[in-house]
Design goal:
Blueprint (H helix, E strand, L loop, with lengths): L1 H8 L5 H18 L4 H29 L12 H4 L4 H43 L13 H22 L4 H24 L1 H6 L5 H5 L1 H25 L11 H4 L1 H9 L6 H26 L4
Helix pairs in contact: 2-3, 2-6, 2-7, 2-13, 3-5, 3-6, 5-6, 6-7, 7-10, 7-13, 10-12, 12-13
Length: 295
C-alpha cells in the first residue's frame, strides 16, 4: 500500500519544486548575507506539497477522463491501474491541498499581497493543471505553466519571503529552472504523444508534432544554459561561467531526445532531466555562495 502511494507522488519529479526554492534562497543570501531558516523550511514544505497535489490530481483526474490507458509508456498510474481507489485519491488531493493552504497562511501573512497572489495562483495551478473549465495540460499550456510556476514564481516568491522586496535578479535567474521544468513537461508530452492524440489531449506535441517537440526539449535546455551565461555577465559572477557547459555532461540524454525512438526509455530521459535540474540549481547556488565569500 505504501509503495502505491509513493508511486502516486512521482518522487522523480519532486526536484521541480525543491530546486527553484534552493536557488531563491541562495539569491536572497547573496543579497543580504542571511536567511530566515524557519521561513525557508516552510517555503520548501509548501512547494513540495503543491507539487504532490499536482501529481495526485493529474493521476486521479486523467484516470477519470480516460486519458491514462494501458497503452501509455509512462510509469504506472495508480488510479488507472486500480491500485488506489479513486475516492481515496480524491481525499488525498483535498488533504494535501488543505495542508499546503494552512501552512501557507503564515507565509501569506509575512509576505503580504504579493505572496497571497502567488499562493492562490499556485493552489490553482496544482488543481487547474489537470482540471477546471480550462485545464492547462489539456490545452497546450503545460510547458508554459511549468516555466512560470516552477521557475519565475518559485524563485522570486522564495526570495521575496526572505527579503520582502522584488528582485529582477531573482526573476532572471528563475528562468533557468523554469526552462528545465518546462523541458520535463515537454519530454512527458513527447513520450505520451500517441496516447494523448487518441484521447484528444491537446498538448504542444499533439498540436505541432513529434519533430517540433523533440527540438523544443533541446531548445529549452540550451536556453537554461544561456540564462547562466547572461547572468554571469550581467552580475559580474565569473564563477558561473563554467556552468554554461553543464549540459555537455548530459549530452547522451539530449541526443536521445532528438533521435531515439519514443519508448519506455523516455522515462529515463525524463529522470535524467530532473537530475539536471537539481544539479543546475545546486551548482548555481554554490557559485553564488562562493561569490559572497561563504566558502
Amino acid at each position: 500500500m505504501i509503495k502505491n502511494w509513493i508511486l502516486a507522488t512521482r518522487p522523480k519529479t519532486l526536484f521541480a519544486s525543491i530546486s527553484p526554492v534552493i536557488l531563491g534562497l541562495s539569491i536572497a543570501y547573496f543579497e543580504q548575507a542571511q536567511i530566515n531558516t524557519n521561513v525557508a523550511i516552510l517555503t520548501l514544505l509548501c512547494a513540495l506539497l503543491l507539487q504532490l497535489a499536482s501529481n495526485i490530481a493529474n493521476d486521479y483526474l486523467d484516470a477519470q477522463k480516460g486519458i491514462d490507458t494501458a497503452d501509455r509508456l509512462g510509469p504506472l498510474r495508480v488510479t488507472q491501474a486500480g491500485l488506489i481507489p479513486s475516492i481515496q485519491m480524491k481525499r488525498a488531493l483535498i488533504l494535501v491541498l488543505a495542508v499546503a493552504f494552512f501552512l501557507g497562511i503564515y507565509l501569506m501573512i509575512i509576505g503580504g499581497p504579493f505572496i497571497m497572489l502567488i499562493g492562490f495562483l499556485s493552489l490553482y495551478f496544482a488543481y487547474g493543471y489537470s482540471a477546471g473549465p480550462f485545464p492547462l495540460s489539456y490545452n497546450g499550456l503545460g510547458e508554459i505553466a511549468a516555466f512560470i510556476f516552477f521557475g519565475l514564481i518559485a524563485v522570486t516568491g522564495t526570495h521575496f519571503l526572505q527579503t520582502h522586496h522584488f528582485s529582477l535578479m531573482a526573476l532572471f535567474f528563475g528562468m533557468g529552472p523554469g526552462f528545465i521544468s518546462a523541458t520535463i513537461l515537454a519530454i512527458n508530452n513527447l513520450r505520451d504523444i500517441k496516447t494523448d492524440r487518441v484521447t484528444k489531449k491537446r498538448t504542444l506535441a499533439v498540436k505541432y508534432g513529434e519533430a517540433f517537440q523533440r527540438k523544443l526539449c533541446v531548445s529549452l535546455i540550451i536556453s537554461s544554459s544561456i540564462v547562466i551565461f547572461l547572468a554571469s555577465l550581467m552580475y559580474h559572477l565569473t564563477w558561473l561561467l563554467p556552468l554554461t557547459a553543464l549540459p555537455i555532461i548530459f549530452t547522451k540524454n539530449w541526443i536521445h531526445l532528438l533521435k531515439n525512438p519514443i519508448d519506455q526509455k523516455m522515462n529515463q530521459a525524463l529522470a535524467k532531466t530532473a537530475q539536471y535540474l537539481l544539479i543546475y540549481s545546486l551548482l548555481t547556488s554554490l557559485s553564488l555562495m562562493h561569490a559572497k565569500g561563504l566558502f
